[in-house]
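User: Sequence in, structure out. Go.
Assistant: Echoing your sequence, followed by the structure tokens.
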Amino acid sequence: MAQEDIFKKLVAHCKEYGYVFQSSEIYDGLGAVYDYGQMGVELKNNIKKYWWDSMVLLHENVVGLDSAIFMHPTIWKASGHVDAFNDPLIDNKDSKKRYRADVLIEDQLAKYEEKMNKEVAKAAKRFGDAFDEKQFRETNPRVLANQEKWNTLHTRFSDALNDNNLAGLKQIIEDEGIVCPISGSRNWTDVRQFNLMFATEMGSTAEGASKIFLRPETAQGIFVNYLNVQKTGRMKIPFGIAQIGKAFRNEIVARQFIFRMREFEQMEMQFFVRPGSELDWFEKWKETRMKWHRALGFGDENYRFHEHEKLAHYANAAVDVEYKFPFGFKEVEGIHSRTDFDLSQHEEYSGKKIRYYDPELGESYVPYVVETSIGVDRMFLQVISASYCEEQLEKDTRVVLKLPPVLAPVKLAVMPLVKKDGLPEKAREIIDELKFDFNCQYDEKDSIGKRYRRQDAIGTPFCVTVDHQSAEDNTVTIRYRDTMEQERVAIADLGKIIGEQVSYKTLFGKL
């Protein structure tokens, strides 16, 4: 099945089973804004808990914060967002569609990669166990030709980004023959910069209102509170401040469902360190964050690090954790060494000293910062993409979300075999006993087979069937989602069986 078709099925599945809805749908929707349904909000909360606890519970020197969305407008001048928070945009004159110039070029690079990978895949199939991929990549003429094209384009692209050469970006698009996906034409405008911040007004009267911005990131709320947290918490460097919160960006080229939205949620941690030690901590957090992703069990080969072509104005090192979505490898988390840029800027613009006195060195300094920043919505999409599966069975096909049990919205579905003979009451007793520990669902509609399929599609890891034997010996049939195997167990053992599988402690053990 084509990757585009898989992605379309993912989007449809998310709506059909209560994960994600188009915002304001009854009014024909609002572009690039989405609402999370009854299943989606549970999965989203579980992802946030996994991140939060892994940061705050597992690290003695990381604490939490919840800063306001509205902030003093000078903060965004100090941070560089007013002057430098831009995307390079280009329009196609025929389709009237707007695109990010850098994304068009990244897609072209991905096409060269795909051509090389197809050649490798064909050769691997032809030669079997005797296939030497490294030697093939170094000697095959078609692979070498595409690698040369990739290298040349990559160098030009990197140079243009670092030099902020907008004309150079357009020239690359023209030289590569990149066409508009809608019109198929190469009739492009010049590339220009577009600021992504949403502006609004705060004040009781129009005359007295001041212009403020909806925050485009949560990090600045941490930076301006850094000294408050350090002093009140008696924190010693190195230490971190974690935050989960909403951010807003006026994305002109919002696309790929919830991958790029105008209102989204971030999970960010700013780690304050001594100057000179930041790159060591950068490497440590790279390793820590990759372990966090891989612990979910979606396949180590589906993750990779991607070094930035162009460093942000505040960074001296930056890398993305990328996951292989149905539409290719894309960023789910950024790890940046932000130097002392943010704190120094706020010290300058506010006129307040926000330095740290290091008792070991006997001196004060502006700390350096290593940041980990992950989008909740992208992580949500990554989990859904990795979990979605269509399995061909003997008589039919089942669609199943093989979510990690700890993240699954519903942990347990309890089903009476029939709606009589006291079986519904027995099922309710089981739910009443377990609902304080697990999110349970009662399901009595349709045949037991259809109920299993429905719970598979939701991603419920355990289904318990209450039958006539249950009333006699207090046992039930438990069915496991991924294997579809069933076993007879005592009702009294259900809490332990399920608890071991859905415990965050089990997941944290892999970190």
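User: And one key feature?
Assistant: The first helix runs from residue 3 to 16.
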